[in-house]
Amino acid sequence: MPADRLLPTDEARDLIALTRDIADKVLAPVVDEHEKAEKYPDGVFATLGEAGLLSLPYPEEWGGGGQPYEVYLQVLEEIASRWAAVGVAVSVHSLACHPLFSFGTGEQKERWLPDMLGGGTIGAYSLSEPQAGSDAAALVCKATPVDDGYSITGEKAWITHGGVADFYNLFARTGEGSKGISCFLVPDGVDGLSFGRPEEKMGLTAVPTTSARYDDVRLPDDRRIGTEGQGLQIAFSALDSGRLGIAAVATGIAQAALDEAVAYAKERETFGRKIIDHQGLGFLLADMAAAVDSARATYLDAARRRDAGLPYSRNASVAKLVATDAAMKVTTDAVQVLGGNGYTRDFRPERLMREAKITQIFEGTNQIQRLVIARSLA
Ligand SMILES: Cc1cc2nc3c(=O)[nH]c(=O)nc-3n(C[C@H](O)[C@H](O)[C@H](O)COP(=O)(O)OP(=O)(O)OC[C@H]3O[C@@H](n4cnc5c(N)ncnc54)[C@H](O)[C@@H]3O)c2cc1C
What is the rounded distance in angstroms from the CA atom of residue 219 to the CA atom of residue 143? Predict the structure, then answer.
Protein backbone atom coordinates (compact mmCIF):
# COMPACT_ATOMS: atom_id res chain seq x y z
CA MET A 1 0.00 0.00 0.00
CA PRO A 2 1.23 3.53 -0.66
CA ALA A 3 2.68 4.89 2.60
CA ASP A 4 2.50 8.49 1.47
CA ARG A 5 -0.98 9.23 0.20
CA LEU A 6 -1.65 12.88 -0.61
CA LEU A 7 -4.76 13.64 1.43
CA PRO A 8 -6.49 17.01 1.72
CA THR A 9 -7.33 17.06 5.46
CA ASP A 10 -6.43 15.55 8.82
CA GLU A 11 -9.89 13.99 8.86
CA ALA A 12 -9.05 12.19 5.61
CA ARG A 13 -5.78 10.93 7.08
CA ASP A 14 -7.72 9.61 10.09
CA LEU A 15 -10.17 7.87 7.77
CA ILE A 16 -7.36 6.11 5.92
CA ALA A 17 -5.82 5.05 9.23
CA LEU A 18 -9.20 3.75 10.43
CA THR A 19 -9.71 1.86 7.16
CA ARG A 20 -6.27 0.23 7.39
CA ASP A 21 -6.99 -0.79 10.96
CA ILE A 22 -10.31 -2.40 9.96
CA ALA A 23 -8.64 -4.00 6.95
CA ASP A 24 -5.99 -5.58 9.18
CA LYS A 25 -8.25 -6.64 12.03
CA VAL A 26 -11.59 -7.41 10.38
CA LEU A 27 -11.06 -8.09 6.65
CA ALA A 28 -7.68 -9.84 6.43
CA PRO A 29 -8.44 -12.62 8.96
CA VAL A 30 -11.60 -13.81 7.16
CA VAL A 31 -11.15 -13.06 3.45
CA ASP A 32 -9.78 -16.47 2.39
CA GLU A 33 -12.40 -18.42 4.29
CA HIS A 34 -15.30 -16.42 2.83
CA GLU A 35 -13.97 -16.40 -0.73
CA LYS A 36 -13.38 -20.17 -0.67
CA ALA A 37 -16.75 -20.98 0.93
CA GLU A 38 -18.54 -18.37 -1.26
CA LYS A 39 -20.00 -17.01 1.97
CA TYR A 40 -21.47 -13.49 2.16
CA PRO A 41 -19.66 -11.47 4.86
CA ASP A 42 -22.58 -9.57 6.39
CA GLY A 43 -20.66 -9.04 9.65
CA VAL A 44 -18.00 -7.18 7.68
CA PHE A 45 -20.60 -4.81 6.21
CA ALA A 46 -22.02 -4.18 9.67
CA THR A 47 -18.53 -3.14 10.84
CA LEU A 48 -17.98 -0.90 7.80
CA GLY A 49 -21.43 0.63 8.29
CA GLU A 50 -20.80 1.34 11.98
CA ALA A 51 -17.49 2.97 11.07
CA GLY A 52 -19.31 5.21 8.58
CA LEU A 53 -17.41 3.81 5.60
CA LEU A 54 -20.46 2.78 3.54
CA SER A 55 -21.66 6.29 2.70
CA LEU A 56 -18.58 8.50 2.70
CA PRO A 57 -19.27 10.64 -0.39
CA TYR A 58 -22.80 11.70 0.62
CA PRO A 59 -23.60 14.83 2.69
CA GLU A 60 -23.75 14.54 6.46
CA GLU A 61 -27.24 16.10 6.51
CA TRP A 62 -28.52 12.90 4.87
CA GLY A 63 -26.50 10.53 7.03
CA GLY A 64 -23.43 10.35 4.81
CA GLY A 65 -19.77 10.98 5.61
CA GLY A 66 -19.52 14.34 3.84
CA GLN A 67 -16.19 13.45 2.24
CA PRO A 68 -14.89 14.59 -1.14
CA TYR A 69 -14.86 11.90 -3.81
CA GLU A 70 -11.06 11.86 -3.87
CA VAL A 71 -11.06 10.77 -0.22
CA TYR A 72 -13.87 8.24 -0.60
CA LEU A 73 -12.05 6.61 -3.52
CA GLN A 74 -8.80 6.30 -1.61
CA VAL A 75 -10.64 4.63 1.27
CA LEU A 76 -12.25 2.30 -1.27
CA GLU A 77 -8.84 1.50 -2.76
CA GLU A 78 -7.58 0.55 0.71
CA ILE A 79 -10.56 -1.77 1.30
CA ALA A 80 -10.20 -3.39 -2.13
CA SER A 81 -6.46 -3.92 -1.69
CA ARG A 82 -7.39 -6.23 1.16
CA TRP A 83 -10.64 -7.70 -0.16
CA ALA A 84 -11.79 -6.86 -3.68
CA ALA A 85 -15.32 -8.27 -3.27
CA VAL A 86 -15.95 -6.01 -0.28
CA GLY A 87 -14.55 -3.02 -2.18
CA VAL A 88 -16.91 -3.77 -5.07
CA ALA A 89 -19.81 -4.14 -2.63
CA VAL A 90 -19.09 -0.74 -1.06
CA SER A 91 -18.83 0.84 -4.51
CA VAL A 92 -22.09 -0.76 -5.71
CA HIS A 93 -23.88 0.39 -2.56
CA SER A 94 -22.73 3.95 -3.25
CA LEU A 95 -23.84 3.59 -6.89
CA ALA A 96 -27.26 2.41 -5.70
CA CYS A 97 -27.71 5.46 -3.44
CA HIS A 98 -26.92 7.88 -6.29
CA PRO A 99 -30.30 7.91 -8.12
CA LEU A 100 -32.34 8.81 -5.02
CA PHE A 101 -29.78 11.34 -3.83
CA SER A 102 -29.40 13.07 -7.22
CA PHE A 103 -32.88 12.70 -8.73
CA GLY A 104 -35.28 12.04 -5.84
CA THR A 105 -37.73 14.64 -4.52
CA GLY A 106 -37.16 16.16 -1.07
CA GLU A 107 -39.97 14.01 0.27
CA GLN A 108 -38.52 10.79 -1.17
CA LYS A 109 -35.08 11.61 0.21
CA GLU A 110 -36.42 12.37 3.67
CA ARG A 111 -38.28 9.08 3.67
CA TRP A 112 -35.57 6.69 2.49
CA LEU A 113 -32.13 8.28 2.19
CA PRO A 114 -31.11 8.41 5.88
CA ASP A 115 -31.75 4.65 6.15
CA MET A 116 -29.86 3.93 2.93
CA LEU A 117 -26.87 6.00 4.06
CA GLY A 118 -27.06 5.12 7.73
CA GLY A 119 -24.78 2.10 7.45
CA GLY A 120 -27.35 -0.56 8.30
CA THR A 121 -28.48 -1.35 4.76
CA ILE A 122 -26.86 -2.40 1.51
CA GLY A 123 -28.13 -1.51 -1.97
CA ALA A 124 -28.06 -3.03 -5.44
CA TYR A 125 -28.21 -1.57 -8.93
CA SER A 126 -30.27 -3.49 -11.45
CA LEU A 127 -29.85 -2.26 -15.02
CA SER A 128 -28.59 -5.32 -16.94
CA GLU A 129 -30.80 -7.98 -18.50
CA PRO A 130 -29.88 -11.21 -20.27
CA GLN A 131 -30.03 -9.50 -23.70
CA ALA A 132 -29.10 -5.97 -22.54
CA GLY A 133 -25.67 -5.40 -21.00
CA SER A 134 -23.53 -2.97 -23.01
CA ASP A 135 -26.66 -2.00 -24.91
CA ALA A 136 -28.62 -1.00 -21.82
CA ALA A 137 -31.31 0.74 -23.89
CA ALA A 138 -32.34 -2.70 -25.19
CA LEU A 139 -33.84 -3.63 -21.82
CA VAL A 140 -37.39 -5.02 -21.89
CA CYS A 141 -38.45 -5.45 -18.23
CA LYS A 142 -41.77 -3.62 -18.23
CA ALA A 143 -43.38 -1.20 -15.78
CA THR A 144 -47.06 -0.95 -16.69
CA PRO A 145 -49.14 1.86 -15.13
CA VAL A 146 -51.93 0.57 -12.88
CA ASP A 147 -54.38 2.55 -10.73
CA ASP A 148 -52.10 3.34 -7.84
CA GLY A 149 -48.66 2.97 -9.42
CA TYR A 150 -46.90 0.36 -11.56
CA SER A 151 -46.90 -3.36 -12.15
CA ILE A 152 -43.39 -4.65 -12.94
CA THR A 153 -42.84 -7.81 -14.94
CA GLY A 154 -39.61 -9.08 -16.43
CA GLU A 155 -36.17 -10.57 -15.97
CA LYS A 156 -33.06 -8.77 -14.71
CA ALA A 157 -29.52 -10.19 -14.79
CA TRP A 158 -26.16 -9.92 -13.07
CA ILE A 159 -27.25 -8.17 -9.89
CA THR A 160 -24.38 -7.69 -7.45
CA HIS A 161 -25.95 -8.33 -3.99
CA GLY A 162 -28.92 -10.06 -5.65
CA GLY A 163 -30.97 -11.67 -2.88
CA VAL A 164 -28.99 -10.06 -0.04
CA ALA A 165 -29.60 -6.34 -0.68
CA ASP A 166 -32.08 -4.24 1.27
CA PHE A 167 -33.09 -2.16 -1.77
CA TYR A 168 -32.76 -2.36 -5.55
CA ASN A 169 -32.47 0.42 -8.12
CA LEU A 170 -34.54 -1.03 -10.91
CA PHE A 171 -34.55 0.29 -14.47
CA ALA A 172 -37.67 -0.75 -16.38
CA ARG A 173 -39.49 0.19 -19.56
CA THR A 174 -42.40 2.64 -19.38
CA GLY A 175 -42.34 3.60 -23.07
CA GLU A 176 -40.50 3.17 -26.37
CA GLY A 177 -36.79 3.62 -27.09
CA SER A 178 -34.03 5.04 -24.92
CA LYS A 179 -36.36 7.73 -23.54
CA GLY A 180 -38.89 5.09 -22.50
CA ILE A 181 -37.02 3.81 -19.44
CA SER A 182 -37.74 4.79 -15.83
CA CYS A 183 -35.96 4.26 -12.53
CA PHE A 184 -37.60 2.70 -9.46
CA LEU A 185 -36.52 2.10 -5.89
CA VAL A 186 -37.62 -1.41 -4.95
CA PRO A 187 -37.52 -2.55 -1.32
CA ASP A 188 -36.41 -6.10 -0.61
CA GLY A 189 -39.20 -8.56 0.10
CA VAL A 190 -41.94 -7.18 -2.18
CA ASP A 191 -44.46 -9.76 -3.44
CA GLY A 192 -43.57 -11.21 -6.82
CA LEU A 193 -39.79 -10.57 -6.66
CA SER A 194 -37.55 -13.65 -6.68
CA PHE A 195 -33.87 -14.30 -7.32
CA GLY A 196 -31.95 -16.94 -9.26
CA ARG A 197 -29.10 -19.05 -7.90
CA PRO A 198 -25.84 -17.10 -7.40
CA GLU A 199 -23.72 -17.22 -10.57
CA GLU A 200 -20.65 -19.47 -10.30
CA LYS A 201 -18.05 -16.78 -10.88
CA MET A 202 -14.31 -16.69 -11.55
CA GLY A 203 -13.76 -14.35 -8.60
CA LEU A 204 -15.54 -12.08 -6.09
CA THR A 205 -17.11 -15.28 -4.82
CA ALA A 206 -18.02 -13.96 -1.36
CA VAL A 207 -20.59 -11.55 -2.79
CA PRO A 208 -23.50 -13.07 -4.74
CA THR A 209 -24.41 -12.04 -8.28
CA THR A 210 -27.87 -13.23 -9.32
CA SER A 211 -30.67 -12.80 -11.78
CA ALA A 212 -34.08 -11.55 -10.60
CA ARG A 213 -37.61 -12.26 -11.74
CA TYR A 214 -40.32 -9.60 -11.38
CA ASP A 215 -43.76 -11.16 -11.59
CA ASP A 216 -46.46 -8.47 -11.36
CA VAL A 217 -44.54 -6.64 -8.63
CA ARG A 218 -46.68 -3.69 -7.49
CA LEU A 219 -44.96 -0.40 -6.73
CA PRO A 220 -46.72 2.85 -5.73
CA ASP A 221 -46.03 5.97 -7.82
CA ASP A 222 -43.72 7.44 -5.21
CA ARG A 223 -41.27 4.54 -5.77
CA ARG A 224 -40.39 6.03 -9.17
CA ILE A 225 -37.22 8.14 -9.00
CA GLY A 226 -37.12 11.07 -11.44
CA THR A 227 -39.65 11.56 -14.20
CA GLU A 228 -41.05 8.86 -16.48
CA GLY A 229 -38.53 8.29 -19.25
CA GLN A 230 -35.59 9.75 -17.32
CA GLY A 231 -34.29 6.32 -16.33
CA LEU A 232 -31.40 5.95 -18.73
CA GLN A 233 -30.10 9.44 -17.91
CA ILE A 234 -30.22 8.49 -14.21
CA ALA A 235 -28.54 5.14 -14.89
CA PHE A 236 -25.67 6.72 -16.83
CA SER A 237 -25.22 9.55 -14.33
CA ALA A 238 -24.88 6.98 -11.54
CA LEU A 239 -22.43 4.99 -13.65
CA ASP A 240 -20.09 7.97 -14.11
CA SER A 241 -19.61 7.97 -10.34
CA GLY A 242 -19.67 4.18 -10.11
CA ARG A 243 -16.93 3.77 -12.71
CA LEU A 244 -14.63 5.82 -10.52
CA GLY A 245 -15.37 3.38 -7.71
CA ILE A 246 -14.40 0.48 -9.94
CA ALA A 247 -11.21 2.32 -10.97
CA ALA A 248 -10.30 2.69 -7.28
CA VAL A 249 -11.09 -0.98 -6.61
CA ALA A 250 -8.92 -2.01 -9.57
CA THR A 251 -6.08 0.17 -8.28
CA GLY A 252 -6.36 -1.54 -4.89
CA ILE A 253 -6.15 -4.96 -6.53
CA ALA A 254 -3.12 -3.86 -8.57
CA GLN A 255 -1.40 -2.36 -5.52
CA ALA A 256 -1.92 -5.60 -3.58
CA ALA A 257 -0.42 -7.61 -6.45
CA LEU A 258 2.59 -5.27 -6.65
CA ASP A 259 3.14 -5.52 -2.88
CA GLU A 260 3.02 -9.33 -3.02
CA ALA A 261 5.40 -9.44 -5.99
CA VAL A 262 7.95 -7.06 -4.45
CA ALA A 263 7.93 -8.91 -1.12
CA TYR A 264 8.46 -12.23 -2.91
CA ALA A 265 11.18 -10.84 -5.19
CA LYS A 266 13.12 -9.57 -2.18
CA GLU A 267 13.18 -13.08 -0.67
CA ARG A 268 13.49 -15.49 -3.58
CA GLU A 269 17.00 -16.21 -4.85
CA THR A 270 18.14 -17.62 -8.19
CA PHE A 271 21.62 -17.73 -9.70
CA GLY A 272 23.05 -16.57 -6.37
CA ARG A 273 21.07 -13.37 -5.96
CA LYS A 274 17.63 -12.09 -5.03
CA ILE A 275 15.38 -12.12 -8.08
CA ILE A 276 14.63 -8.41 -7.60
CA ASP A 277 18.33 -7.82 -8.40
CA HIS A 278 18.02 -9.42 -11.83
CA GLN A 279 17.50 -6.46 -14.11
CA GLY A 280 14.95 -8.31 -16.23
CA LEU A 281 12.74 -8.83 -13.21
CA GLY A 282 13.45 -5.42 -11.68
CA PHE A 283 12.20 -3.78 -14.88
CA LEU A 284 9.04 -5.90 -14.78
CA LEU A 285 8.41 -4.67 -11.22
CA ALA A 286 9.16 -1.10 -12.30
CA ASP A 287 6.54 -1.32 -15.05
CA MET A 288 4.07 -2.72 -12.52
CA ALA A 289 4.73 0.18 -10.13
CA ALA A 290 4.33 2.70 -12.98
CA ALA A 291 1.00 1.12 -13.94
CA VAL A 292 -0.30 1.32 -10.35
CA ASP A 293 0.75 4.96 -10.00
CA SER A 294 -0.88 5.82 -13.36
CA ALA A 295 -4.09 4.08 -12.33
CA ARG A 296 -4.25 6.06 -9.10
CA ALA A 297 -3.41 9.33 -10.84
CA THR A 298 -6.21 8.93 -13.41
CA TYR A 299 -8.92 8.17 -10.86
CA LEU A 300 -7.77 11.02 -8.60
CA ASP A 301 -7.78 13.44 -11.53
CA ALA A 302 -11.37 12.49 -12.40
CA ALA A 303 -12.44 12.60 -8.73
CA ARG A 304 -10.96 16.07 -8.25
CA ARG A 305 -12.86 17.29 -11.31
CA ARG A 306 -16.03 15.81 -9.84
CA ASP A 307 -15.33 17.44 -6.47
CA ALA A 308 -14.81 20.79 -8.22
CA GLY A 309 -18.17 20.48 -10.00
CA LEU A 310 -16.53 20.12 -13.43
CA PRO A 311 -17.67 17.65 -16.12
CA TYR A 312 -15.87 14.35 -15.51
CA SER A 313 -17.68 11.70 -17.55
CA ARG A 314 -14.82 11.25 -20.03
CA ASN A 315 -12.26 11.31 -17.20
CA ALA A 316 -14.23 8.61 -15.36
CA SER A 317 -14.09 6.42 -18.47
CA VAL A 318 -10.35 7.08 -18.85
CA ALA A 319 -9.83 6.18 -15.19
CA LYS A 320 -11.87 2.99 -15.47
CA LEU A 321 -10.02 1.98 -18.65
CA VAL A 322 -6.51 2.76 -17.37
CA ALA A 323 -6.97 1.39 -13.85
CA THR A 324 -8.68 -1.86 -14.81
CA ASP A 325 -6.25 -2.62 -17.64
CA ALA A 326 -3.46 -1.88 -15.16
CA ALA A 327 -5.02 -4.28 -12.64
CA MET A 328 -5.20 -7.06 -15.24
CA LYS A 329 -1.60 -6.56 -16.37
CA VAL A 330 -0.10 -6.06 -12.90
CA THR A 331 -1.85 -9.10 -11.40
CA THR A 332 -0.81 -11.25 -14.37
CA ASP A 333 2.78 -10.05 -13.98
CA ALA A 334 2.65 -10.69 -10.22
CA VAL A 335 1.81 -14.34 -10.97
CA GLN A 336 4.86 -14.34 -13.25
CA VAL A 337 7.13 -12.89 -10.54
CA LEU A 338 6.14 -15.72 -8.19
CA GLY A 339 6.98 -18.36 -10.82
CA GLY A 340 5.30 -21.74 -10.18
CA ASN A 341 4.08 -20.57 -6.79
CA GLY A 342 2.18 -17.78 -8.51
CA TYR A 343 0.01 -20.32 -10.28
CA THR A 344 -1.20 -21.87 -7.04
CA ARG A 345 -3.96 -20.91 -4.63
CA ASP A 346 -1.44 -20.88 -1.79
CA PHE A 347 -0.31 -17.44 -2.94
CA ARG A 348 -2.46 -14.32 -3.26
CA PRO A 349 -1.70 -13.18 -6.84
CA GLU A 350 -3.72 -16.12 -8.25
CA ARG A 351 -6.91 -14.73 -6.66
CA LEU A 352 -5.99 -11.13 -7.45
CA MET A 353 -5.63 -12.04 -11.13
CA ARG A 354 -9.10 -13.62 -11.16
CA GLU A 355 -10.54 -10.59 -9.38
CA ALA A 356 -8.90 -8.10 -11.75
CA LYS A 357 -10.66 -9.60 -14.78
CA ILE A 358 -14.17 -8.54 -13.83
CA THR A 359 -13.13 -4.91 -13.42
CA GLN A 360 -12.60 -4.76 -17.20
CA ILE A 361 -16.16 -6.01 -17.74
CA PHE A 362 -18.73 -4.56 -15.37
CA GLU A 363 -20.09 -1.00 -15.18
CA GLY A 364 -19.37 -0.77 -18.89
CA THR A 365 -16.78 -3.01 -20.54
CA ASN A 366 -13.53 -1.36 -21.54
CA GLN A 367 -14.71 -1.39 -25.15
CA ILE A 368 -17.65 0.74 -23.98
CA GLN A 369 -15.27 3.07 -22.10
CA ARG A 370 -13.35 3.55 -25.35
CA LEU A 371 -16.65 4.33 -27.06
CA VAL A 372 -17.42 7.03 -24.46
CA ILE A 373 -13.93 8.51 -24.79
CA ALA A 374 -14.02 8.42 -28.61
CA ARG A 375 -17.43 10.14 -28.65
CA SER A 376 -16.09 12.90 -26.41
CA LEU A 377 -13.35 13.53 -28.99
CA ALA A 378 -15.63 13.66 -32.03
C1 LIG B 1 -19.75 -10.30 -11.62
C2 LIG B 1 -20.65 -9.34 -12.34
C3 LIG B 1 -21.34 -8.39 -11.62
C4 LIG B 1 -22.22 -7.51 -12.26
N5 LIG B 1 -22.94 -6.63 -11.52
C6 LIG B 1 -23.90 -5.90 -12.12
C7 LIG B 1 -24.79 -5.10 -11.35
O8 LIG B 1 -24.70 -5.03 -10.12
N9 LIG B 1 -25.79 -4.44 -11.98
C10 LIG B 1 -25.95 -4.49 -13.34
O11 LIG B 1 -26.87 -3.85 -13.86
N12 LIG B 1 -25.11 -5.23 -14.11
C13 LIG B 1 -24.10 -5.93 -13.53
N14 LIG B 1 -23.26 -6.71 -14.30
C15 LIG B 1 -23.44 -6.76 -15.74
C16 LIG B 1 -22.31 -6.08 -16.51
O17 LIG B 1 -22.38 -4.69 -16.34
C18 LIG B 1 -22.39 -6.54 -17.97
O19 LIG B 1 -21.99 -7.90 -18.00
C20 LIG B 1 -21.52 -5.70 -18.87
O21 LIG B 1 -22.05 -4.40 -19.01
C22 LIG B 1 -21.40 -6.33 -20.28
O23 LIG B 1 -22.64 -6.67 -20.78
P24 LIG B 1 -22.86 -8.15 -21.39
O25 LIG B 1 -22.36 -9.13 -20.40
O26 LIG B 1 -24.26 -8.25 -21.83
O27 LIG B 1 -21.89 -8.22 -22.64
P28 LIG B 1 -22.26 -7.73 -24.12
O29 LIG B 1 -22.88 -6.38 -24.05
O30 LIG B 1 -22.99 -8.80 -24.81
O31 LIG B 1 -20.81 -7.58 -24.74
C32 LIG B 1 -20.08 -8.70 -25.21
C33 LIG B 1 -18.76 -8.18 -25.77
O34 LIG B 1 -19.00 -7.30 -26.87
C35 LIG B 1 -18.36 -6.06 -26.64
N36 LIG B 1 -19.20 -4.99 -27.18
C37 LIG B 1 -20.54 -4.82 -27.00
N38 LIG B 1 -20.96 -3.73 -27.64
C39 LIG B 1 -19.86 -3.17 -28.23
C40 LIG B 1 -19.61 -2.01 -29.04
N41 LIG B 1 -20.59 -1.15 -29.33
N42 LIG B 1 -18.36 -1.78 -29.49
C43 LIG B 1 -17.34 -2.63 -29.17
N44 LIG B 1 -17.50 -3.73 -28.41
C45 LIG B 1 -18.74 -3.99 -27.95
C46 LIG B 1 -18.26 -5.94 -25.14
O47 LIG B 1 -17.22 -5.04 -24.75
C48 LIG B 1 -17.94 -7.38 -24.74
O49 LIG B 1 -16.57 -7.62 -24.93
C50 LIG B 1 -22.36 -7.58 -13.67
C51 LIG B 1 -21.65 -8.53 -14.41
C52 LIG B 1 -20.82 -9.41 -13.75
C53 LIG B 1 -20.10 -10.46 -14.57
Answer: 9
